[in-house]
Amino acid sequence: MMKRIYADHAATTPLLPEALEAMMPFLKENFGNPSSLHGWSKPTRRALADARASIAACINAEPEEIFFTSGGTEADNWVIKGSSGGLMVSAYEHHAVLNAAASEARKGRGVVYVRPNMKGFVEDGKIAKAWKNGIGLVSVMTANNEIGTRNNIANLARYAHKKGALFHTDAVQAVGHVPVDVRAWDVDFLSASAHKFNGPKGIGFLFIRKGVRLAPLLDGGQQEGGIRAGTENVASIVGMATALKFNCERMEENAAHLDTLALRLRDGIGHVFPNAIYFGNGGIGQLPGFVSVSFPGHSSEGLLHMLDLKSIAVSAGAACDSKNTHVSHVLKAINVKKDIASSTIRITFGPENTPNDVDEILIALTAILKWGQKEKDPLS
Ligand code: PLP
Fold first, then answer.
1. Mutate which of 173, 193, 237, 292 to test ligand 1's pocket (most atoms within 8 Å of Cβ)?
2. Residue 72 C-alpha to ligand 1 middle, in angstroms?
3. Ligand 1 atom closest to Cα of residue 194
């Protein structure tokens, strides 16, 4: 049987075995409601407190600043819809931010869009140029999910604060992979999602800086400080905290390994397809193990399916976009021409990938690209 290679870690990651193991008691014997007044609540209440403290430590927050959510989409929606005043969002945000902002615009709230530069970074100069009176919240992602570029969040938050606005960053692609420090960056809100760092799906968190007000997301009981009611998903929260701690403790070695894989892939592609165009690999940096590359003359969807037939999983643009065939809004925002954008695939490695996986991808790509060229060129 052909070995299956998973190289789509920006879409989702495998569950860490240690996280699953930590979750099991809370799916079995420790089922007590953390809000109950009897003894069954003790292990679950303690587990929630430990998870909150452990997650907070990974991003330099206080435990009471961590609010559990059902994932990144919920955290993003909560901030965008629960904040007040005008909104400023970057044009290449994830749809969880963009569509939440669009929904607010339909209700009459002002929304200003800021374009990233052509290298894929959001600059404070562009924010300054687009500024409008009354903006209450600026939202710019820590790292982009299609091209992997990382923004200088401290700089952008400083500008928003200077203008009297609050600052949110969607750090879904960054948390657990690169250092995230809410104090050094001085952000007011930060979203994260467990399934992007080897935790379970359907769980995430929102950091809300102490003293900053955000409208409640769900009314009900007193869970999560009374602003996000509902009995907590204890097992998943424990899995998330375990995965995050594990990855934060190995961040440097993981990043070095992933960068080596990405470099090996780029080197190999250079030999086979010297016309390949890369996105995001400049400026202040790209997420480790992230390769966004266009093979002009080849359709990204075709490449994705041919690789899939060879048991290799990559992505054409964002996975959340897989039902839409329109050109990626991210590549459009950084001014990439339509034909180049529609030849772009995203290959994202994880700690379990090996140099041999890269070589297998290169062998498959070589076969597909060569075959594709012959198909296109009747003289060859
Ligand atoms: N924000 C970014 C940058 C993402 O990459 C994703 C997922 O792809 C999300 C938000 C949504 O997170 P979730 O899948 O947890 O709802």
1. 193
2. 5
3. 15
The answer to whether residues 195 and 314 belong to one domain is no
Q: Is 148's C-beta closer than 6 angstroms to any atom of ligand 1?
A: no
Q: Indicate the number of domains in the chain.
A: 2
**Residues of the chain above pLDDT 70, percent:** 94
Residue where one domain finishes, among candidates 249, 278, 312 = 249
Tell me, yes or no, whether 233 and 272 share the same domain: no
Indicate whether this model's pTM tops 0.85: yes
Q: Ligand 1 pocket, 312 CB below 6 A?
A: no
CB of 320 sitting under 6 A from ligand 1: yes
User: Residue 323 — very low, low, confident or very high, per pLDDT cuts 50/70/90?
Assistant: low
pLDDT reported for residue 282 = 54
How many whole angstroms from 94 Cα to the centroid of ligand 1? 7
**Residue 325, domain extent:** 5-13+251-376
Q: Which residue's CA lies nearest to atom 5 of ligand 1?
A: 145
Task: From 233, 249, 265, give the residue that closes a domain.
Answer: 249
* φ, ψ for residue 348, nearest 5 deg: -130, 120
Ligand 1 pocket: which of 140, 196, 237 to mutate (most atoms <8 Å of CB)? 196
